[in-house]
């Protein structure tokens, strides 16, 4: 699978983050239970991971389960956890073959024990891979990530390891779940809603945001290529003027 003609392989986003939304509504349109939408959504995950790896994206962060999603009905939460465990077990061989490293962000201690164990094993089995980093956001919330970081930093100030004046962007970055990863360049949300839903609140401050009405189960290679092509048409100014950006 080569890079589609519509995108420039030399200017790919290094880090793409995706809010995979719309599984439930898509299933409803098909007169199917919500879990069926999540199942077909896993096929989209496989397809998009493969594209990202093939095209040369460095990091792909997928918002799979938010801190707020624990409030869903227990059978849906259980179904999602089962799908996650299956996915990890089924994909390990492909991750090894395709040189994909798995990482995760979020309060993963909250996941059911068996799922947590498979997750930890997959992370350690793929830790030496260096093509695509597939970063799963699980039991993730941007606000709890910040609370956790502030607590750690406060403890370091209290113990005298650092001074208040040492607190800067780099220090905060290094206390987030995403420490060591570049900030997302492109943030995609499927499913027609235009909100962040507590995703990467700090890291996405200069991400290009792309909203699409496509539901996640129908978001595949062509739709992903369109999102990247749109990203490549935009001018990232980072607060400067267009003239400044053009003169480099
Ligand atoms: C995204 O699809 C998957 C998760 C949040 C786990 P939804 O389940 O939110 O689908 P909609 O938004 O209800 O259609
Ligand atoms: C965001 O989708 C979370 C994930 C995709 C995992 P939601 O469906 O939970 O978001 P809201 O509730 O519509 O904001
Ligand atoms: Mg939703």
Explain this structure to me?
The protein has one domain: Decaprenyl diphosphate synthase-like (Undecaprenyl pyrophosphate synthetase). Helix 4 links the parallel strand 3 and strand 4. It is built from eight helices and six strands. 43% of the residues lie in helices and 14% in strands. Helix 1 crosses helix 2 and helix 2 runs parallel beside helix 3. The longest helix has 24 residues. A six-stranded parallel beta sheet has the order 3-4-2-1-5-6, with helices on both faces. The protein is α/β, with parallel strands linked by helices and 248 residues long. The protein is globular and about 55 Å long. Bound molecules: 3-methylbut-3-enyl trihydrogen diphosphate (2 copies) and magnesium ion. One 3-methylbut-3-enyl trihydrogen diphosphate (IPE) binds next to strand 2.
Short description:
With 248 residues, this protein is an alpha/beta fold. The chain has a single domain (15-140, 183-237), classed as Undecaprenyl pyrophosphate synthetase, CATH 3.40.1180.10.
Give me the CATH fold name: Undecaprenyl pyrophosphate synthetase
Helix percentage = 40-55%
Our count of helices gives 8
Strand order of the largest sheet: 3-4-2-1-5-6
The total count of strands amounts to: 6
Uncertain spans: none
List bound small molecules.
3-methylbut-3-enyl trihydrogen diphosphate, magnesium ion
- The radius of gyration computed from the alpha-carbon positions, rounded to a whole number of angstroms, is 19 Å
Can you give keywords for this protein?
alpha/beta, 248 residues, binds 3-methylbut-3-enyl trihydrogen diphosphate, 43% helix, 8 helices, Undecaprenyl pyrophosphate synthetase, 14% strand, 6-stranded parallel sheet, binds magnesium ion, globular
